[in-house]
Records
---
Amino acid sequence: MPSRRRTLLKVIILGDSGVGKTSLMNQYVNKKFSNQYKATIGADFLTKEVQFEDRLFTLQIWDTAGQERFQSLGVAFYRGADCCVLVYDVNSMKSFDNLNNWREEFLIQANPSDAENFPFVVLGNKIDVDGGNSRVVSEKKARAWCASKGNIPYFETSAKEGVNVEEAFQVIAKNALKSGEEEEIYLPDTIDVGSSSQPRSGGCEC
């Protein structure tokens, strides 16, 4: 039987303030929704264990503040991410238009080794509001944007009603896994990433 190694996969959720990032995370991890809106200060994260092919993975899902005054915190949170989730509110054109800024900001701050193929997933949230009558961003428009950015997977979600949340995070986890596996092959499990065959001096190479 294959060994059940635990692997940590880091997922970052980005998007404008109030689009439902925290609610999506809570719905996925805790199966809960709250109508009480509380802005995230800085960043927060939840973890959830997922299993693929007899391997256990811990998804570490980081929810970052949408307010611009917290964006300077970005670098530390973005580094080492295995997947980035871009969230907008289907009832807010501004939140959709800002997806491009969030995506570019992430690529600059996280500086992934293969920016062209880094996995993103886009979620159009709040499809439940007003029975869908308030929406201003069509699914066609959102899918066209995702296609233009290298066929980013797209889901329409309702954090409140749990619509497509589980399905979206399954794809997020799979994409994070693909991204994270490349690192696993090359990096040993220790902090020392130098060649193990080379004797190392005791000094810090910070």
---
Amino acid sequence: MTRPVILIVGAGPGVSGSVARLFAREGYDVGLLGVDAEQLGALGAELEAAGANGQAAVVDVTDVETTTEVITAMGEVFGSIDVVHFNPSAFREQDPLELTVADLLEDVALGVGALLTAVQAARPFMGAGGRVTVTGSMAADQPWHRAASLGVQKAGVRNLVHSLDTTLRPDGIRAVSVTVRGTLGREGAFTPDRVAEAIWDAVHQDPDDWQSEVPYSG
């Protein structure tokens, strides 16, 4: 029987790594796109130990052509993509009087635009029941002025998820942003593992009561 597949865009040691490990334990094969070869290698080894088949690629996801080629190649190897999880964002400590338009657009290209690239590339391999998930943040509603571009990214990606969900729904594919209303830490309700569980739950919502934004408040 063919195993389901999750593609993780922006894979690393935090929430995305926890998502990868959780889905692997639940029987998924995993595709990883990230920027750090060492981190991808370590995560890939963990997934293999958990019994998952994996594909990993070091790629700048703001490079539309290369990212599209990589996702297409992974889709062809796996045969299908059941879940796309989007995690990247840019943290730039600049307030609105320091932030330049060029810097803002560069950050939005990563934290919002790359979601378009990922979904458009994965779509030919997704069928009814497919899901798109995004790691959201309370910064969408309560931005810290010293990281002004992050709030714009998180508000923008949440808005894009709503549009993706409406667009994909007729084909039985749904999209959801999990808005993390707390600060990630090593202990307590906001560990990466706990957030990953919230993302798992969001993927497995009842389609008849689907919400394209799910808050996680711990």
